[in-house]
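From the shared-data thread, chain only:
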Amino acid sequence: MAHTLSPGDRVQTALGKGVVREQRNGGRVLVEINGRSLVFDAGHVTPLDDRAARRPRPTPSAPEAPGATAGPARIREVDLHGFTVDEALARIDAMLDACMRDDVAQLRVIHGRSGGRLRSALHRRLTDIGSVRAFRIDAHNPGVTLVWL
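Structure, as tokens:
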């Protein structure tokens, strides 16, 4: 039985708890779980009671890179595949806000190697944000921009 879900609803999936980001055709929903967006059949997700979701779970800490400065060690990741430039920039703004509130040191932004317009718009936006200490293309994956907050 498919449930009526709308953006912002908290849901339980086979991969964990997440938040519905958008309703799609064919009874599918886009769900964000731990900073990753996944598409599920609406019949395979269960709505959660909002009272149980008030305490967010901490994200697992990632090991710090050699030579990293002291401070928050958590890293978050956001995937921008499939978004328009405007949608991606809105998503980045929301994720940067969440990272700053949660004292996250680094954000990995996955934009894809051939995402020239998206990557250049992202870099222009990051240049204009004062709380972004630095950003660069990941040396191991040119489809990822690393952002330090």
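The longest strand covers residues 16-24.
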